[in-house]
Amino acid sequence: MSDELLLERILGIINEGKRTATYKLALLLALIDAAVMGPEDGYVETSQIAESVLRLYFPQVGPYTTLNGSAVDLRNMTARSSEFVRAITDLRTLGTRSSFRTLNQIRTYLPDDYVKALKTVENVFKINPIPRLQNVGDSSVPFLYTYSTLSAEDSNKVVHRSGDRIEWLPGVAQRLVVLGTALRPLIEQHWMSDVARWSNISTEAENLQQHLFGQERQRFPLSLREGLSDLQDGKCFYCGGSFSDQRDIDHFIPWARWPNDAIENLVLADNCNSQKSDSLAAVTHLNRWIERNSMHAVKLSDLADQTGVVSSPERSLALAKSTYKFLDENSPLWLAKKEFELRGWLEILALS
Questions:
Q1: Side-chain half-sphere CA neighbours of 176 within 13 A
Q2: How many Cβ atoms are within 10 Å of 265's Cβ, its own excluded?
Q3: Which end of the chain has the lower number of beta carbons within 10 A, N or C?
Q4: Residue 178 burial (C-beta neighbours within 10 Å; 0-12, 13-18, 19+)
Q5: Chain segment 247-293, per-residue pLDDT in tens
Q6: Residues 214-233: pLDDT tens digits?
Q7: What DSSP assignment string belongs to 270-288?
């Protein structure tokens, strides 16, 4: 399938005028995430899709405060409630009562409750939208994946199945990796507009988007800066110079490409942070970042626990792998100040 036809079909889903829920948009984001995490695989387990969906909806079921101070329960569909949204809401409430603020903490300390909610999400998505995402009228016309489901009269038995998976169509996962950085903000924009309309609020663009899809990327506690500074011996990650006044937390894989606040994706930098901006770092920086995360895995995990930041080494490495693997050979990579190098042939220690 050509890129043009692939984009046409995806944009048709995103721009669907009679959408009554954000299910399909969530599935598209989960598929992009799955492609990034393992583009070489021929399949994706439905449990992996459910984990991405749960992560997407978890912040959205919390109370939202508008700019005028009103508390609003946001709606992700025209219906008043749904089984999987109730399951996620109950999980969040349970976590709050146990003083666990993040999904990562709940998964660690309330594993049974986490798995129960995850199974509910998975079962709902097995029935809809996974089998229906690619429908054109009443017919299924696969362009992303194939998926075998039970017949309609036996659909209630879906809950008893395990190990279900979708099979990528040839080349689709790789194209989603390349197109994902452009598709993600478009999907989020339509999602935000749907929620605002169904909840009868204004979009309040930045405020609502941060609530739905994550906090502003610069809001990190001072203790995180101190911890990263100690880990880097008080020196900028990129140039190796000693810190003076400026110490900025930088997303090694830029937030503009893949939003990832995991501690493994964070480094401390001086004015190299503004010079690098949203560029990808040169191979020498990449190899040093990989080495740091491997050598200081335990320290990073401990620092994440102490500061309330997520730790996700596997996801961070997978995002880096996919990002660099599919770059054009003429892509510029930031080296220092205003210096860039072309991607060319990359000798990347841990990404081959």
A1: 26
A2: 25
A3: C
A4: middle
A5: 899 999 998 888 888 999 999 999 999 999 989 999 899 999 999 99
A6: 644 446 888 999 999 999 99
A7: STHHHHHTTSPBPHHHHHH
Are 249 and 261 in contact by the 8 Å Cβ rule? The answer is no
Q: Which two tokens stand for residue 96?
A: 């709050």
Residue type (1 letter), 276: K
Tally Cβ neighbours within 10 Å of residue 38: 16
CA triple 136-138-141, angle to 5 deg: 40
Burial class (CB in 10 A: 0-12, 13-18, 19+), 5: exposed
The tokens of 213 are what? Answer: 């899809």
The token pair that represents 195 in the structure block: 């929620």
In the chain the first and final C-alpha atoms are separated, in Å, by: 27
User: What are the backbone angles phi and psi of residue 21, rounded to the nearest 5°?
Assistant: -160, 165
Residue whose token pair is 């229906």: 132
The pTM for the full model equals 0.80
DSSP character string of 200-226: T---THHHHHHHHH---TT---HHHHH
- Which stretch of DSSP H or E encloses residue 72? strand 71-72
Distance of alpha carbon 223 from alpha carbon 215, whole angstroms = 18
